[in-house]
Automatic annotation (TrEMBL):
It holds the Pfam family Solute_trans_a. It is found in: Membrane. This is DUF300-domain-containing protein. Keywords: Membrane, Transmembrane, Transmembrane helix. It comes from Tulasnella calospora MUT 4182. GO terms for cellular component: membrane. The chain crosses the membrane at residues 38-58, 73-95, 173-191, 203-224, 245-265, 277-298. SMART domains: Solute_trans_a (SM01417). It is a multi-pass membrane protein. InterPro entries: Ostalpha/TMEM184C. It comes from the Eukaryota.
Length: 373
């Protein structure tokens, strides 16, 4: 490790600089449009559209907040599009100063969305956690999906659920942690995003994130397969596409663009470096894709099932937006779920099966009901 640090301190990260200085946007009463100024305008337009569509749908859910268990996770997922759009645009405009902290915020929220979508699937099975456990007791895993079909051991019941849960939760920890590590390594000069050499930290962090996001997506799909019949009334395929594609596509897209830049496919111009062009292309693609996902969410996460019919509740009044939003943004449920999973796995490693041992059945019943909160 010390040899690697010594070699990275001696090596020089390749840097690119524009050959000509850029003219100010407004100079002597004239407006000078550069290529990236046009990119800013296009990104800004796409962002306005995607944020507007998402804000409308989020507002509808908050006004018809009649199923807190499901809509808490739905609204968290819906916030992904405006956060991605706004941060992609700002990181393009503010590339020299605030891009890295903004991307850290985006990566942290991406992890929250995967957590929210996982628990939304469980809420679709039942709002009652005891009924969720009963449903998973009946699950008999026939085979692992490709490429793990060769594994013979097939966990069932709560153990299967906990394995899938940790497969998703590991990403919620590793993704922001790796982004923070990238910021630290970049600050001390050991990151070098422009290089894929093993003497720099970039290649190792990208490898970790690649494995982590692949495991998380695999576990989401593996969880879906045995409970797909229970989820059919909720159109899960469209929801999977609208969440999985955002997380999976944007990461691999950014990685692909970075590879193109590092191998010289994207070249410097007189006024822009290859890295700046790469960031601009990424921002344009992401903001355009967020427009598509914003409209896709209108169908995938419609508010109509939660809007009371006049004949059923003639005196229904819209719920308070602020109160509903406060419930959505309250993070305590995430910490509780992580704690429950830790407790379960701890007892499992000690040789107890909380699903069958009477002592731990009583413990989990009281814990899940909230008496131990």
């Amino acid at each position: 490790m010390s040899d690697q640090h010594e070699s990275s301190s001696q090596a020089v990260c390749p840097e690119h600089h524009a050959a000509l200085p850029e003219k100010p946007f407004i100079s002597q009463g004239e407006i000078h449009f550069a290529a990236h100024h046009v990119g800013w305008i296009i990104c800004g337009f796409f962002t306005l559209v995607s944020v507007g569509v998402s804000a409308w749908l989020i507002n509808k859910h908050l006004l018809n907040y009649t199923n807190k268990g499901q809509q808490r996770f739905i609204v968290r997922c819906l916030f992904l599009v405006p956060i991605y759009s706004i941060i992609s645009t700002l990181s393009y405009i503010l590339y020299d100063s605030y891009a890295s902290p903004l991307i850290l915020v985006r990566d942290c929220y991406e992890a929250i969305v995967l957590h929210a979508f996982f628990y939304l699937l469980l809420e679709y099975i039942s709002h009652d956690e005891e009924e969720q456990k009963e449903a998973f007791r009946e699950i008999k895993l026939k085979k692992w999906m490709f490429p793990l079909g060769f594994i013979r051991k097939k966990p069932t019941g709560l153990y299967f659920l906990q394995i899938m849960k940790w497969g998703v939760l590991q990403y919620t920890v590793l993704r922001p942690a790796c982004t923070l590590a990238a910021l630290i390594l970049n600050y001390i000069g050991w990151y070098c995003e422009a290089s894929w050499s093993p003497i720099w930290g970039h290649i190792y962090l990208v490898t970790i994130i690649s494995i982590s996001v692949s495991v998380a997506m695999y576990c989401l799909l593996q969880l879906y397969m045995p409970i797909s019949d229970l989820l059919k009334p909720h159109s899960p395929i469209l929801k999977f596409l609208s969440v999985k594609a955002v997380v999976f596509l944007t990461f691999w897209q950014a990685t692909f663009l970075a590879v193109l830049a590092s191998f010289g496919v994207v070249k410097d111009t007189p006024y822009m470096t290859a890295e700046e062009i790469n960031i601009g292309l990424g921002a344009l693609l992401e903001t355009f894709e967020m427009v598509i996902f914003a409209f896709l969410h209108l169908k995938a996460f419609t508010y109509l099932p939660y809007k009371p019919k006049p004949e059923d509740q003639p005196d229904f009044k819209p719920t308070s937006r602020l109160r509903s939003l406060g419930h959505v943004l309250d993070p305590r449920d995430m910490f509780r779920q992580i704690w429950k999973g830790c407790v379960y796995m701890w007892h499992r490693m000690r040789g107890y099966e909380p699903d069958t041992n009477e002592r731990y059945v009583r413990y989990y019943t009281s814990y899940l009901s909230g008496s131990l909160d």
